[in-house]
Amino acid sequence: MDRFSWCDGSLFPEEHLVEQQGGVAVYDGHDKTPFVSGFLMLTTHRLLWRDQKNRNCVISLSLSVISGLDEQPSGFTKRRTHFRSPRSTMSWRHRSCQVFTCCGLRLEASTPNRVWSRSSQSNLAKITCTTVKFFHTPTSELVEMTCIQPLAPVYLQFYRSLKEEVKKKRWESHTAPSGTSSAATPSSSSSQGLLPRQRPGIVGIERSIQAKNKETNKNISQAFQDLRNLMEKAKDMVNLSKTIATKIKEKQGDITEDETIKFKSYLLSMGISNPVTRETHGEGDKYYSELARQLATLLTKPIEESGGMMTLTDVYCRVNRARGMELLSPEDLLHACELMEFLGLPVRLRTFDSGVSVLQAQSQNEEEVVSETSAMVEKQGNLTSEQLAQLLGLSVVLAKERLLMAEKMGGVCRDETVEGLNFYPNRFLSEA
Amino acid sequence: MSRRPAGIAAIKNKSLAQAKYRDKGNEIADNQFAQMGKQMQMFKGNLEDFATKHRDDIRKDPEFRLQFQEMCASIGVDPLASSKGFWAEMLGVGDFYYELGIQIVEVCMATSKRNGGLIGIEELRRKVEASRGRNSQAISIDDLLRAIKKLKILGNGFSVHKVGGSFLVQSVPGELTLDHTVVLQQAQEKGNVTKSDLVNTLGWEEERARRALDFMLKEGLAWVDHQSGSEHSFWFPSLIPDFSSSLN
C-alpha cells in the first residue's frame, strides 16, 4: 500500500485519461482502508483514485511501479458475501510478496515509490502499511481494488486498458514531470541512488556488516601504517583489539588453542603502568627498595593463589610480563627480593637447603603455622609428613618442614622408627 | 478489516520462513566470525612487526607503551622480540637471552599443569619458537641453554637435567611439586606403586614418574622392592598401618 501517494487529482501536461470506473474501494491486503467508495481512473501515467464525497481526497499510483498484472478467478468474493456481490477484485502485488490467489486482478509493483517515505506516512496514517511490515508479512503489501458494482464487462474493459497502458509505457516517452508529479514517477536513476538507504532486510543487514568490516580493516591498516599513526589512534585500536578478542572468545571460548599464548595473554593483561626503573627512581638502594615495594604489591595475590609460594624464576617471568618492554634483569630482581624482609613487606625471599629460592607470602606466619600444624596432629592422633601433605594439599617437602618446625617449637614430638618419621602431640608439655 | 485466520499452510509457511531466517542468521554470524578471525590475524601480524621494528620508540613513551601492551595482551602477541644479533651471539650481551629466559619460563609455567613441570628440551624449543610469533629467528637448543644459564642466579628452582643425549627442564622443584602427594594417593590402596602404574593411570611421562619415585626414595619416604617381578615396586611405610588395618 505504500506505493500510493497523495495528489491533487490534476493531470500532468502529457498525461491523458484513458478509462474511468466508479464504485471502487481500495483494500490493503485483506484490510479495508478509509478509501471505501470512489472513482478509479486510468491515465497514461498513473492510476488515480478519487473519493466520491470528498473530491480533494485523491491518491495515485504510478504505472511504472507495476511489474505484473494478472487476472484470476475470484475466490475472494465468496468469502466476502456479506458485502455486495458479485464483485471483482484487483490487487497490486509487490514482487517479493507470496503468491496470493484469491484476487480477481493482480498488479505487481516493482520498486518502492520513494516518495512514500516514513515521513510522509503521517499524512496517511490511516493506511497501515509500513516498510517494516513489508518484510515480515509480505502479504500485507497487497493492494486490492474492489469494484463494488457488479459490472463485469466494464471491469474487464478497465483491466484490458490497464494492461495495455502498462505495456505501452507511455509515461516513459515523456520527460519526468516536475514538481509534485515526481511523486508519481520515480525516475529509475534517482530510485537507484536511494536504494542502499531503502533496503533494510537481510540484504541490507549483510551489506551494512560488509561495509563495517571493510571500514574496520581499513582502520587497522591505516593505524599500523607507521608508529605515529598508531600512537594517535592507540586508544581506538586498544578498544578494537579488545572487542575482537571478546567476540572470538564468545564464539570459541578463547583466542587461541595454544596454552602458552593463552597464558602469555593473561600475564600481559596484568600490566603495570609505571614500572620502577633506574631512570625514574634513581640508582642504588632507593631503586631497589622501590622495586621491592612494587614487586610485593604486584605479587602478593598471585603468590597466595599458588599456595603461598612461588619460585623466583616464576616471579621473574611474571614481573617482566607485567612490565612489558621494560625488562628487569635476574640480578636486580634478586637484590630487590633480598630487601623485602628488611622493608617489612608482606612477601619475602626464602631459600631452601636444596638451593631453591622462593618468594613466600608473609601470611604464613611462623607461629600460626606451628599452632595449626600442632592442632592438626592433635586431631588426627599422629601424622607423617606424607599424610599432612595430603591433608593440606601441600608438597611433601613443605609438609615435612612444617612438622619439623612444629617440633622445634614444642608443638609435636617425633616417633622415629624403621617405618619412617611419625609425629605425635607433645604430651610432655600439654599434660605436665 | 480483520485478518484471515491462519490455516495450516500459513503456519507451515511461517515456520519455514522462520527456519530460513534462522539459517540466514547463522550464516551471517559465521561470516562475521570469519571476518573477526581475519582482523585478528591482521592485528597480530601488525603488532609483531611493530614490536620488532619500533621497540625503542615504544619503550620511550610510557602511556603508549601500556597501550601497546594492552593490545598485545588481547591478541596474544609477544612484545619481546629482540633479535639475537652479533654481540649477543658472541658475548651473550643484550636483551635477547633475557627475553628468551622469560619466554622459556612462560612456556614451562603454562604447561606445568599438564606435565608437572618437566619438559623435554625439544618440545620446549618448539613451543618457545611458536609463542615468539612469526618474526622470530630460529631458536636453537644452545640458545635455550644459554638463556637458562642466566636464570641460575634465581636459585635451583629451575634446572636442566641431562637425560641420555637430551635435556630435561624442570621448572617445579621438589619443594613445590604436588607429584609426590599424588603418588601417595595412588599407592593408598595397595600400599605400593610401580612406575608403570603411574604412567598408565595418571597419563604421566615415564621420566616424570621416575623422578617422583626416585625423589621419594632418596628422601626416605619410599622403600623399593627389587623382587616384585618384572618391575620394581615402591612401598610407603607411612601407608603400611592403613594397609594392615584394612586386612584385619
What can you see in these coordinates?
The complex is a heterodimer of chains A (432) and B (248). Chain A has 432 residues and is an alpha+beta fold. Chain A has 4 domains: 5-175, PH-domain like (Roll); 201-255; 278-361, Winged helix-like DNA-binding domain superfamily/Winged helix DNA-binding domain (Arc Repressor Mutant, subunit A), CATH 1.10.10.10; 366-430, Orthogonal Bundle (Arc Repressor Mutant, subunit A). Chain A contains 17 helices and 16 strands. In chain A, helix 14 (366-380) crosses helix 16. The longest helix of chain A has 23 residues, at 201-223. Chain A is elongated. In chain B, helix 5 crosses helix 6 (121-132), helix 5 (96-115) packs across helix 7 and helix 9 crosses helix 10 (206-218). Chain B starts with 7 loop residues before the first helix and ends with a helix. Chain B is flat. Chain B has 3 domains: 13-70; 85-170, Arc Repressor Mutant, subunit A (Orthogonal Bundle); 179-247, Orthogonal Bundle (Arc Repressor Mutant, subunit A), CATH 1.10.10. In chain B, a hairpin with a 2-residue loop joins strand 2 and strand 3. With 248 residues, chain B is mainly alpha-helical. In chain B, the strands form 2 sheets. In chain B, strands 1-3-2 form a 3-stranded antiparallel beta sheet. A 3-stranded antiparallel beta sheet of chain B has the order 4-6-5. Chain B is built from 11 helices and 6 strands. In chain B, 39% of the residues are buried. Classes of the chains: A alpha+beta (432), B mainly alpha (248). At the A-B interface, strand 3, helix 6, helix 7, helix 8 and helix 9 of A face helix 1, helix 2, helix 3, helix 5 and helix 6 of B.
